Amino acid sequence: MLRLNLFITLSLCVLAATTVATSASTVIITVPATAPTESPTYTDDKNFQKAIIDTHNLFRNEHNASALGWNDTLAKFGANWTIACEFNHSHGAYGENLAKGYPNASAAVTAWGDERKKYDFSKAAFSEATGHFTQVVWKTTKTVGCGRKDCGNSSSRSWYVVCEYYPRGNIIDHFAENVQAQTKRPSGHIQGAKNPAVRVRGFGLAETM
Length: 209
Known about the structure:
There is one protein chain. The chain is α+β, with helices and mostly antiparallel strands. The chain has one domain: CATH 3.40.33.10. The chain is 25% helix and 23% strand. The protein has helices spanning 40-43, 45-62, 72-82, 105-113, 131-137, 175-178; strands at residues 6-8, 12-16, 19-22, 28-31, 69-70, 95-100, 143-150, 159-166, 198-202, 206-208. Strands 5-7-8-6-2-9 form a 6-stranded mixed beta sheet. It has a two-stranded antiparallel ribbon with strand order 1-10. The chain has a two-stranded antiparallel sheet with strand order 3-4. A hairpin with a 5-residue loop joins β3 and β4. α2 (45-62) runs parallel beside α4 (105-113). The two termini are 15 Å apart.
């Protein structure tokens, strides 16, 4: 009997939203995002690559997964996808994580990894709330490559990050062996990813292969 293996594409996007402040009166003021100093993890290729790899591997080490290597083919794919500044998935052949609005590349990856706080290891299944995390630590994934682009304007920077993974993760019926519980204490994570204004959106898509 032919057995169909179901795959889930990476289906979540993380977006840092603007802040809304309310005064004591009835006036509501929308506070625009400020223009922070440009992070070298965005403006310099080597710093960007190092931040992406190091932060991924901090989480992978804590979840008993081997270190990822950098893949230039994946990076080119991710970079091409950022060009239009459209915050949507490519539906390509790779695993994919998206983030926008974080102060540096490490903070974006940390936001994905921090979804582990919501992951139910006893169920070992896909969830839209934790899909970034499960791809970050997926054991059989070996390489990652990412692109980025400033999709803001002259007064407000908004860096868009697209990471591609190979082999891709989030495969139905394979979560238990690929997403393992944390075995080590967190160490060296970049601060700044925890943002009370972050919102998550996405969808799940299953395909037969």
